Amino acid sequence: MTHTISILCDDIPGVMTRISGLFSRRGFNIESLTVGHTERPGKSRFTIVVEGDDGVLEQVRKQLQKLVHVIKVWDLDHERILEREHALVKVEVHEQDRANLLQLITVLQARILNSSGSIWVLEITGDSKSVDSAINLLSQYTILESIRTGKIALEQGAKERGPSNRL
Fold first, then answer.
1. What is the average pLDDT across 68-83?
2. Most buried of 29, 66, 110, 123 (most Cβ within 10 A)?
């Protein structure tokens, strides 16, 4: 089963090493890991996607919670999750393909970030499946380079499963 783990922690050097080490020692392959600042100064939030046994993952969650600079750890509810990934794709565009590619960009709700002659850099944002589909559709053109972020996620609605706002 795939799990999306959210971790609120102090924003200090070495925290990522300790967090990822707990997953690797338990034999979990991290499929996606993103980290960034939160609305709280000095705090960061990790979003980690792993696949594995619920029981073992619960042990990892409890061990993460014991780390000194970790404030809160929770497994996001897949029925309430809002997720996004971001991709940049550099495409070679031939003159005869421009109109079709522009139509595809509109359908995908992508953006052209840069167009230097026959080289375009496109921005794609969406859930994991949408980004996969967009890249698959763009593969009919010559993709020169691409990169994508890991998943970022929040649970929708007012129900607070995560850390309190009083931290």
1. 91
2. 110
